[in-house]
Every structure is written in structure tokens, then in C-alpha cells.
Amino acid sequence: MLLNSVFVLSLATLFQAANIHAQNVETVDSNSTVSQQQPIDKPGSYIAHGLLFHYVETDSMQTAGLPNVEWDILKIDPSARENLCQRQTAYCANNCGGPNQAPKNFCNATTMAWGCGCSHKVADFAPFLWPVVQAECSGKAQECQMICNKDTVNPSTCAATCNTYYQCDTDKAPPSYLQTESPNDTPSYNGPPKEISKTDNSNNRNGNSSDSHASRASKFTSNSNAYLVAAIAASASSALLAMTNL
After folding, report:
1. Do the Cβ atoms of 221 and 25 come closer than 8 Å?
2. Could you give the CA distance from residue 207 to residue 5 in angstroms, rounded to a whole number?
3. Residue 95 · residue 87 · CB < 8 Å
4. Three-state DSSP class for 186?
5. Cα 202 vs. chain centroid, distance in angstroms?
6. For residues 228 and 232, what is the distance between their CA atoms, to the nearest angstrom?
7. Could you report the per-residue pLDDT of 224-235, keeping only the tens digit for each?
8. Does 221 reside within a domain?
9. Could you tell me if residue 151 is inside a domain?
10. How far apart are CA 6 and CA 12, in angstroms?
11. Whole-prediction pTM value?
12. Which SS3 state, helix, strand or coil, does residue 105 take?
């Protein structure tokens, strides 16, 4: 009777250990799976197409009530865009040291995509001084104020928030994404351009990696459980043999 009790207790202990081990295996694998992190735009500076651009670092409390401005530079009259592009290309040529020193100098009046590249230097005018960038910031700032004029709750706070964010013609101006590699490229009018193909490829790679992790985890868990079951069976056989001998 005592041996039977010991045998039952031994089996219960082994089954409990197997269950705990299986749970631990799954927990470890879950922690090792890397979740894809979404990119976050951070304040600071970056270089694109040979030019130094700046992200704006503003107080989150000051911009928390910023209206949703959907205005873009294409809302400017076509003739005004033509004039703006002429000023833009002249600005580039002047920065490079003359028209012959700016092999890359374009401004598409239809899309407002622009680019500037010098032969013997890097175009180094401050980003907020380029005519196209100034016009875009000014238009968004005006739209922001117009939205605030319709604010019946606290229009003065709304207007102050616009002024804080749209500090055009200064180094605190919001970034522009109208600069492109080619005049045929489509610029981004509201926020950074989204690279869909790269994101999809990254997702696929991450997905394959996750599947691989899951597959390995499943195999590892199955193998571990198989070993534990075998150990339990061996222990049970030994116990039965001992009981028989007694």
C-alpha cells in the first residue's frame, strides 16, 4: 500500500514537472520573439540629397492643440507656382556660384518637386530660406490661423499654438519634404514620404522570421515533452518492477 502511494505521488510529481517545463519553454520563446517597431520621427537634424534639414523640437504641451492643417502648396495659383519655381532655381544657381555650377537645378511647377546640386560644393543655404520651403510653411501657417478663427472655445490659444509650430523663416520652422531626386518624382506634401515597398519587404522578412521562431519553438516544445514522457514512462516501469520484486 505504501509503495502504491509512493508510486502515485511520483507520477503526479513528474507530470507536474513536465507541465511546468512546457510552460517555461513557451514563455522563453514568447519573450525572444522580436516585435516590429514602428519608425518614430525624432527631433534633430538629417541630411537628404546633399542638404541639411532639421526636425523641429517643440514643447508637446504647446503643440497639443495644433489644428489638423490639410493645406498643401498645390493650392497656390499655377502662375504663382511658376514664379516661385523661377525664384527657386535662381536661388540654387546663386548658391552654387552661377548657372554653370548647378548641374542639378530643377523646380516642377506642377508638383512643386525641386532639387539643387552644385558642381564644386554642397548647396548649403539653410532649409527654411529656400523660396519653395518658405511658401509652403507660410501657406500652412495661414491655413492654421484660419482654422483657429473658427474656434469658438479658445481661439487665442489655438492661434498661439499655430505661431509656436509654424515659425517660418527661422531655424525652428517645420520640415519640408518637397525636395526630390528627380523633377518627375512626386514629393510628400504632408509629412515624411512613406516607402511602402521597403516597409512591405521588411514586414515579409519579419513575418518569415517570426514564423521561423514559432516553428523552432513548436519543435523544441514537442521534443522536450517527448523526452519528459519517456522519462515518466521509464520511472513508472522502474516503480512497477520494484513492486513486483517486493
Report:
1. yes
2. 50
3. no
4. coil
5. 12
6. 6
7. 455 444 555 555
8. no
9. yes
10. 10
11. 0.56
12. strand
